[in-house]
Amino acid sequence: MNMTVTMGGLIGSLLGGKLLDMINVPGMLLVSGITALIGAMIVCAFSEKGRSNVN
After folding, report:
1. Residue 11 pLDDT level (bands cut at 50, 70, 90)
2. Radius of gyration, CA atoms only, the chain
3. Alpha helix (H) ranges present in 1-55?
4. By CB neighbour count within 10 A (0-12 exposed, 13-18 middle, 19+ buried), where does 10 fall?
5. What is the mean pLDDT of residues 11-31?
6. How many CB atoms lie within 10 A of CB 11?
7. pLDDT of residue 38
8. Cα–Cα distance, 4 to 18 (Å, whole number)
9. How far is residue 33's CA from residue 2's CA, in Å, rounded to a whole number?
10. Burial class of 19 by CB neighbour count within 10 A (0 to 12, 13 to 18, 19+)
11. Alpha-carbon distance 38 to 46, whole Å?
12. What is the pLDDT of residue 1?
């Protein structure tokens, strides 16, 4: 687990820096927003509806 977090942090920092150099801050905010929206759609698509415990 520690290796996964370390590799994710390393790769994220490298890609984020490269992206920031290429398209500046407004572009990076746009990419981050789109990525967050896609992630939210994936979570909503694969989440299960919970059962109510009403007796």
Report:
1. very high
2. 17
3. 2-46
4. exposed
5. 90
6. 10
7. 97
8. 21
9. 27
10. middle
11. 12
12. 80
**Tens digits of residue pLDDT in 30-47:** 988 999 999 999 999 988
Residue linked to tokens 């407004």: 26
Joined together, the tokens standing for residue 12 give 């994220």
Residue-level pLDDT at 20:
87
Which amino acid is located at 37 in the chain? L
Token pair of 43 as six digits: 């979570």
Nearest to 14 by CA among 22, 55, 26: 22
- What's the CA dihedral at 53, 47, 11, 13 to 10 degrees? -70
Task: Determine the pLDDT at residue 51.
Answer: 65
